[in-house]
Amino acid sequence: MELNIFTIGASLIGAVLLTWLILRFFFGTRKAAQGEMGDGEQRATITVKGGYSPDVVTMRAGVSIVLNFDRKETGECTSHVVFGDLGLDAMLPGNTATEVRLPALKAGDYPFACGMNMVHGLLHVEGEGEGDAVGAATVSGASGADFAAAQAREAEERRAEIRDLTRLVALGTVLTLPVFAGMMLHMVDHMLVPDWLINPWLQAVLITPVMFYCGAPIHRVGFPALQHRSPDMNSLVSLGTSAAYLYSLLVCIAPWLLPEGSREPYFESVGVVITLVLVGRLLETKAREGTGKAVQALIGLRPRTAHRLPASHDETATVASDWLDPHAYTDVDIDEVRPDDLIVVRAGERIPTDGVVVAGEAQVDESMITGESQPVGKAEGEALTGATITLKGNLLMRATQVGGDTVLSQIVAMVARAQATKAPVQRMADSIARVFVPAVFIIAVWTFAIWFAIGPDPALAHALVTAVSVLIIACPCALGLATPLSVTAATGVGATNGVLVTSAKALENARRIGTVVFDKTGTITRGVADADSTDWSRPSYERDPIKPGSKEAVAALRAAGIRTVMLSGDKADVAAHIAREVGIDTVIAQVKPDGKAYWIEKLQQEPHDGLVAMVGDGINDAPALAQADLGLAIGTGTDVAMQSADVTLMSGDLRGVIRTINLSQATMRNIRQNLGWAFGYNVIGIPIAAGVLYPFTGWLLSPMIAGLAMALSSVCLVLNANRLNLAHPSAETVTGRRAADTAESAKPSGDGPHVIIDERTTLTTDNTSHNTNHKENTMEMNHMHMHHAAPTDGETATDPVCGMTVAVNADAITREHDGRTYYFCGEHCAKNFDKAPQLFLEQ
C-alpha cells in the first residue's frame, strides 16, 4: 500500500481528538445529586438501568439515610448492590424498587457497586455530624430469616433469566447458522455455496433480529452504562457489534461509498458474537449458582414444621406424661413457633429451632454447625441448635430462639455480610477495572487509526475488523469478578466446616498468622472449676482438663513455624504445667483480667514474622480479640467475644484455627489464579486482537473468535471459583507453609515453655517450666515507647476496647456515641468500637 501523508495526518489527528473526548467524558467531574430531608431522615432515589443514575449522591453526616434503588432491568449484573465498607449486600429484584436503609454515617465516601463489581456508584457524606455503628444498615434480606426468602427470590429470578437466555440462544443459533455456514463454505470454495445464500440482503434479513431482539439484553445494559459513564463488558459488545452491523448494512445499501476492496459484509460476525455472548452469559448464570451453594445448602436445612405441644399443658404434667404420643402434639409451621413453646423431636428428625432439652436423651449430629462429624450427647438442661439432627433417641425441648434469632439464621446473615466485604487484594483489580473500559476504547481508536493510515489494502476493512475485535475480546468482568466469586464460595465452605469469617479481609489475612495467642480457661481447657474450690466467687482451675484437639492444634502450628503463646491468670507453676502438656512455646502467667489486650499490644511491637492472632472465649477476652491483628472466638463462648472477633470457631475445637489458616490459603490461591487469568487474558488478548501478530504471521483475529474468547473468559473464572466448593480445609496440618530454619521464636527454650509473670511493671521470666524455684530475670518496662501510655500531666481516658490509658488532647482518636466522646489508643480499637459499641460499653 502506498502511504498517503494526508490520510496518515487525518487519522492521527482524529485519534488524538477522540482520545481527548473519551478521557474528558469518562473522567470529567460528575454532578452529585443531593439527598432530600423529611421525617428525620434523608432520602434519594437511584435508578438502576445499565448503571446507577445518579451515580454520586451527597448526604449529610449524622442523619439516617434511605436509598431507594429503582431497578428497571433484569439479569445477573445489577441484581445486587454491595456497600463493601458497610458489609451490606442487598438483593435488587428485577423491575422493582428496593429500599436500603443506612444509619447516620460519619463524613466520608462510601462506594457501592453491583454484585459483579462492574457498575459503580458513590455515597458522599459531608458535614460535622457523627455516625452510629455501621451494623445498623438494613434491607429486605438483611436478617438471617429474610435472607432465606431473598435467596429464594433470587433463585427464581435466575431461573427466569436462564429460560429467557436459552430461548434467545436457540433463536440466535437458528438465524445465524445459515449465514455463518454459507460464509465459511464460500471461503473454502465459492462453488459449494449458491449465490443467494451469501446475498448481503438475505444476511441482513436473518441477522437483524439477532442484532436487535436476541441482543436486546446486551444493548439494554450496554448503552445506558455508556451514558452513565460506567461502561462494562456489555458496552464493549454493543459498540463492537453495532459498528460491524452498520458497516455491513452500508455494504448492502451503498457499497459505492466504500473502497473497492472493503465491500464485504460482516453480518456473520455480528450474529456469532451476540449468540456466543449469550451462550457465555447462560453458562455463567448457571455456574454462579454454585458459588453460593454452601450457604444455600445451610438455608435448605431449616425444617418447615415442628411437633408442638399445646400451650395449655402444664410443663411438669406434660413431661411426666407420654409426650411421644402422636396425639399429644400437633404439627405447626416453623414460623408459628414462639419462645417457650414445648417441641417434640423424634429420632432422625431435624431440631426445628434453638432451645434447651426438657426431657429425654439423644445423640445429635451438629456437623452442619460445627463441621465436626462426631455426634454429641444431649440430656436434660443442655442446649440444642436448630437444623441439627437427632440420630438416636427422642427429645422434648423448650424453644429459646426462633426465626432470625436462631444460630442458623445468624450464621447465614454473618456469611452474607462477609460476602459483601472486599479483600484488600481486590483494590488493585478495582483500580484497574475503573479505567479499563476507557482504555479499551482508546486502544480501539488508535488501532483503527493506525490500520487505516498505514495498513495494507483493504485498509478500511482491516481497520474495522481489528477495532471491533479489540472491543469484543476485552473482558472487564473478569477483573471485577476475580475476588468476589472466590470470597463467596470460600465463606460458604467455611460456614459448613464450622469456621465463620466476618470479612474478606480476615479471610485474606489468616494465612499470614505468625503468632497465635491462646486464652487458657475455656479455650485450651474445658473451663471446669475445681470441685473443692474454697471461694465460690474466685474459683480455681488448677485441675481444669484440656480440651480434645488442643494438643494437636498446637503441634500443627509449631510444625508450620507459628509461635504459640498462652495467657493465663493462674500462678506460674500451674500455667507452665498446662503449657508443657499442650506444647505451648511461651506462657504469660498471672495475667490480670484487664491485661490481655495489653499483652497482645506488647506482642501488633516485638520483632516477628506474620500477624498476631488471639483465640479466646470469654467476655474478658473481647478487648484482646479486638486488639489482635486477627481475633478468633470460640463459638461455645459468649456472644460478646464472637462480636469482637474476625472469625468464630463454632465447635470450640482449636483445630479450627488450622482450618481457618488452610481455608485462607486455599482462597488466596484461588484468587491469585483468577486474577492471573483475568490480567493474562486481557494483556495477551487485546494486543492480538489489535493485530500485533500480523507483521509476523499475516494473521488477524476474527471478531467471531474474539467473541468466543470473551464469552468464555468469565465462565472460566466462575468455574475456577466453584472449585473451592470441593475444598475440605484440613484440621490436622497447616498446608502450604513450612517452618523456617531460623524460626527460633517457635521453639521453647530449655526443656519447657518460656514463662513470663505479668507484674505489669516488671517482666519476670522463667525457663524452668513448672518449678517453684524460679531463676528470675527482671526487665524494667519502658512506658514511654508505648503509644497508649499515659502522659505525665493533663487529662487521660480509658480505651473502652483494650482498656489502655490514652491522653485527652487534640490529636486523640475519638468516637461519639450517645452524646459522649470516647478515646482510643489507635484506629484498630476505634474501628472495632464502631462495629458494636454497646458490646464494649456494657462490660
TrEMBL record:
Domain (TRASH) spans 799-837
Which keywords does this chain's UniProt record carry? ATP-binding, Cell membrane, Copper, Copper transport, Ion transport, Membrane, Metal-binding, Nucleotide-binding, Translocase, Transmembrane, Transmembrane helix, Transport
In which broad location class does this protein mainly occur, judging by the first location in its UniProt entry?
A: membrane
Q: Which CDD domains match?
A: P-type_ATPase_Cu-like (cd02094)
Question: Which GO biological-process labels does this protein carry?
Answer: copper ion homeostasis
Family statement drawn from the similarity comment of this UniProt entry: Belongs to the cation transport ATPase (P-type) (TC 3.A.3) family. Type IB subfamily.
Residue ranges crossing the lipid bilayer per the database entry: 6-27, 168-188, 200-223, 235-259, 265-283, 435-454, 460-482, 675-694, 700-719
Q: Extract the GO molecular function terms from the UniProt entry.
A: ATP binding; ATP hydrolysis activity; copper ion binding; oxidoreductase activity; P-type divalent copper transporter activity
> Mind telling me which NCBIfam families this protein's record contains?
ATPase_P-type
Name the SMART domains on file: TRASH (SM00746)
- What is the protein name for this chain? ATPase
Question: Disordered: where is this region?
Answer: 735-754
InterPro entries in the record: ATPase_P-typ_P_site, ATPase_P-typ_TM_dom_sf, ATPase_P-typ_transduc_dom_A_sf, ATPase_P-type_domA, Cupredoxin, EfeO_Cupredoxin, Ferritin-like_SF, HAD-like_sf
GO cellular component entries: plasma membrane
Compartmental location: Cell membrane
